[in-house]
Specification:
Largest sheet: none
Structural class: mainly alpha
Distance between the termini: 48 Å
Number of helices: 6
Radius of gyration: 16 Å
Strand content: under 5%
Shape: globular
Bound molecules: the ligand COc1ccc(OC)c(-c2cc(C(C)=O)n3cccnc23)c1
Length: 121
């Protein structure tokens, strides 16, 4: 039998795991939890050429595909911008994406990150 040793998590993957969970909490309706399909969003795959969602980001963390925080932040921004582009401004999805991008932007700012990394006094 093959015993798969549990890989120790790199510091980066622990940080990205914390950030992803924090961002997912800001998506209570889970609009961004899974890939958007053409069934629920007509023509989506022809308009959005680089889809992104939280489950894909989770898989990329687990597969160690992110080598920097910037790559993670770029995927988060891509996910929000896809929704801002595809959905008309008055839809819940466009509004949720604008809000999520704003919240995520603050969370990913260096000074906030340093605060969350340093043990609070
Ligand atoms: C109404 O319940 C859901 C459930 C899952 C969704 O995407 C994973 C969406 C959804 C998510 C989106 C996005 C993110 O553009 N969307 C666009 C048009 C129609 N539906 C959606 C909505």
């Amino acid at each position: 039998c093959v015993i798969k040793m549990k890989q120790s998590r790199s510091p980066l993957s622990k940080l990205l795991d914390y950030l992803l969970r924090s961002l997912e909490k800001r998506d209570p309706h889970q609009f961004f939890a899974w890939p958007v399909t053409d069934d629920i969003a007509p023509g989506y795959s022809t308009i959005i050429t680089k889809p992104m969602d939280f489950s894909t980001m989770r898989q990329k963390i687990d597969d160690n595909e992110y080598t920097t925080l910037q790559e993670f932040a770029d995927d988060f921004r891509l996910m929000c911008e896809n929704a801002i582009r595809y959905n008309h401004v008055e839809t819940v999805y466009h509004k949720a994406a604008k809000r999520l991008l704003h919240v995520g932007g603050k969370l990913l700012q260096p000074e906030h990150l340093m605060r969350s990394l340093k043990p609070q006094p």
